[in-house]
Structures are given as structure tokens and as C-alpha cells.
Specification:
The protein is mainly α. 52% of the residues lie in helices and 7% in strands. Helix 2 packs across helix 4 (56-65) and helix 3 (45-52) crosses helix 4.
């Protein structure tokens, strides 16, 4: 654990600093992790761009600065291209600090689905519960979700609220 933790908590007392810290850490981490995952797979920026259906310059920008306008759709496309999952959730600051403490290449490593499945077939994990199956989204009456099932994308859009 970081020996400067009391100092970090003191810095986080400032709401503006706290918000800026979250934003900077997330975008930097994503940029570093995209680069590390690409390199771990032996891909060039052009290779990854081809998998994403975009240009090498876009991948370069994502890796170098942590594109501030990065959308959830783009993150899902990157996860799909690299055959990995994406986890996005709200957490307390204590968890946030732990997540971003280790920025080593090893900490950023994520195995592809195939490699992950192979490893867990050889060394099974004992599940303590059932596998979480998708649960139908319960929205208030009159609000629906539009599914985009085109060949290019398969994701749910934001709830459609009638006006």
C-alpha cells in the first residue's frame, strides 16, 4: 500500500481535486492499458486500428493522451477487438485508490477469452454461486430501451424516455 496514503486522503478532501483525480486517473489508465494490451498481443497500432475499423492515428491518440471524448461504445469495441470483458462500476474512493495504485504492465494485463477459458479449464475456480445470467431491465412504465442489433454493433442504447 502507498506510504503517502494519509497525504492522498488529505488531498482528496478538496472536491475539485477529487473530481480531477478521478478523471485524470481513469483516462490515463485506459490509455496505458490499451497500449499494454496491444503490445502484449504483439499488435501494432495499425493492426489494432484494422480490428476496430478505424485509422492508426485514432489508436495513437487513444494510447498517448487518453482520449477525453472516449465513449462507452468505443470501449466496448476495444474490448471486443481484444476479446476481453469491460467492467464499469461506481466504487468508493478507497477502492479507487487501490485500483490505480499499481500501474505496472503486469497489473494492466488481461488475457483474451480463449486464454482465460483455457487457464480456468486447467485450473478450475470453484464458484460460490450460480453464474450471473442477464436479468431483464425493469424500467418504469412508458420507458423502453432500444437494442441495436446491426452487424457492426450489439449494445443497448440509453433508455428512451417519451416526451
Amino acid at each position: 500500500m502507498n506510504s503517502n496514503l494519509p497525504e492522498i486522503w488529505n488531498d482528496l478532501d478538496d472536491k475539485e481535486y477529487r473530481d480531477a483525480s478521478v478523471s485524470a486517473n481513469i483516462f490515463s489508465w485506459i490509455a496505458f492499458q490499451i497500449r499494454e494490451l496491444r503490445e502484449q498481443r504483439g499488435l501494432t497500432q495499425t493492426d489494432l486500428a484494422n480490428l476496430l475499423g478505424t485509422r492508426q492515428s485514432v489508436v495513437s491518440r487513444l494510447e498517448s493522451s487518453g482520449e477525453k471524448g472516449l465513449s462507452l461504445k468505443t470501449l466496448l469495441e476495444i474490448a471486443s477487438a481484444l476479446d476481453i470483458a469491460l467492467v464499469l462500476k461506481f466504487v468508493p474512493f478507497s477502492r479507487f485508490l487501490r485500483e490505480y495504485e499499481d500501474v505496472s504492465p503486469e497489473a494492466m494485463k488481461v488475457e483474451s477469452y480463449t486464454a482465460d477459458k483455457e487457464m480456468h479449464t486447467l485450473y478450475p475456480i470453484r464458484w460460490t454461486g450460480s453464474f450471473p445470467h442477464p436479468v431483464p431491465l425493469q424500467l418504469p412504465k412508458g420507458i423502453g430501451v432500444v437494442l441495436d442489433n446491426t452487424a457492426e454493433t450489439r449494445y443497448a442504447s440509453s433508455p428512451q424516455i417519451p416526451y
